[in-house]
Design goal:
Number of strands of chain B: 0
Distance between the termini of chain B: 35 Å
Shape of chain B: globular
Distance between the termini of chain A: 118 Å
Oligomer: heterodimer
Helix content of chain B: over 70%
Number of helices of chain A: 5
Helix content of chain A: over 70%
Structural class of chain B: mainly alpha
Radius of gyration of chain B: 18 Å
Strand content of chain A: under 5%
Order of helices and strands of chain B: HHHHHHHH
Largest sheet of chain A: none
Largest sheet of chain B: none
Amino acid sequence: MSHADNQFEKAVRQTLDRSLDDLDTETAAEISRLKYRAMEKAEQNKVKKWLWKFAPAIIILLIMVTFNLRQDNYIQMTSTDMPELNILTSTESLEFYAEEIEFYLWFAETMGTEMEHPDYRPAVPADTIAPPSSCTEGAEGRDFTQLGTDRVSGVLRG
Amino acid sequence: MEDFFRSIERQAYRMALFACHNHDDALDLVQDSMCQFVSKYSRKPQADWKALFYKILQNKIRDYYRKESVRSRWRVWFSKPTDGETSDPLEIQRDIKEIDPEQMTQHKQAFYQLQQELKQLSLKQQQVFILRAWEGLSIGETALAMRCSEGTVKTHYFRATDRLKAKLGEHWP
């Protein structure tokens, strides 16, 4: 490179350097703010990039958690809410259960405790066994009636 | 990183402004370049930062030119003919003010002349000249930044220098 070229290059450099000092204050301030904005933006992009990297894992985790929760709910429902489920899925109208539910609860409870009673006899159709001859009269007949009364009152007393 | 940006931000702005002739676009180009530089090249050796930053800036300028050429095609199709009038009267006013030599100091005038001549160069010649003469990048670094061969850099630089010297004259600045 000749001396003239060097001189010319030097003059160009000086002129361009001076032009930077001539920038108005508003532009200079704007330029100096650029780097902070750029670094901030780059930081945000980095966070977004990480999120995108982990997005598949997060989605799989969410799906697994959702399915597990559903399974837990199902188990809970079968164990504790079965009577309610039976009522809801039965063919009887809900009014039937609303009116007679207390009776059926009492009946179920009575039947449960009766089966545990030492004198429990399974029910049989009325016409298959003949009532004992002493059923209507005499001491044995009175005992049989008394036994039935005691059983019911014992259940009611709890 | 902050110090590096502080050392090159004004030059980068001036370089972008030479290329796109618009203050806001020049600021956007510099900011986008800085942003990309931080996210992609901040872990590279510090000695390479300058060339890499200007490489990004040159890519941004190239993209800007591509977009502008598409936009200008649309503008030609959809805009009304203006019979050679400049669309913005303020632009004319600004030029008249800038040309007035009595209002300028000597270095402002020199810069103005240089700016006008730089605008006349092709984009590649202009950018190669600025990177080599002002930023002091080597031929290799300039080739990296411009994404071209070292031979092309030498040719562009020689032609740019020759043309500027011829246009500005011996008595410049």
